[in-house]
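Database export, one record per block. Field names are fixed; values are copied verbatim from the stored entry.
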Amino acid sequence: GIKSDIQATLDRMEERLKQQNDKIAKDIEAGVEQVGQKIHECCNNTKAHLDSVKSTLREGIKSDIQATLDRMEERLKQQNDKIAKDIEAGVEQVGQKIHECCNNTKAHLDSVKSTLREGIK
């Protein structure tokens, strides 16, 4: 009787943990997808900027273009730094979530072990 109750509890707990892990995996996947889209968007913007600059260069306004290029390069560097920080923060959050999930799983399993030991006595 006690063993089947414990087994049922373990089965339910295992299913809940599996669902939690599946949700975390989906959240991570969605986050990675968003990061990829952001990088793709940034690359397209950069390409559009560079195409525009090439066109302007052909028209021969070199000194103005150099200043524009310098400002653009600085803006792109700042954008890239911000994206890198955002990605870093996202990865950190994912790591914390995984760490938290592992701690919860360990606590559940320790509790089950303790219950099993008490039930066997």
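Remark 1: The chain has two helices and no strands.
Remark 2: The helical segments are 2-59, 62-120.
End of record.
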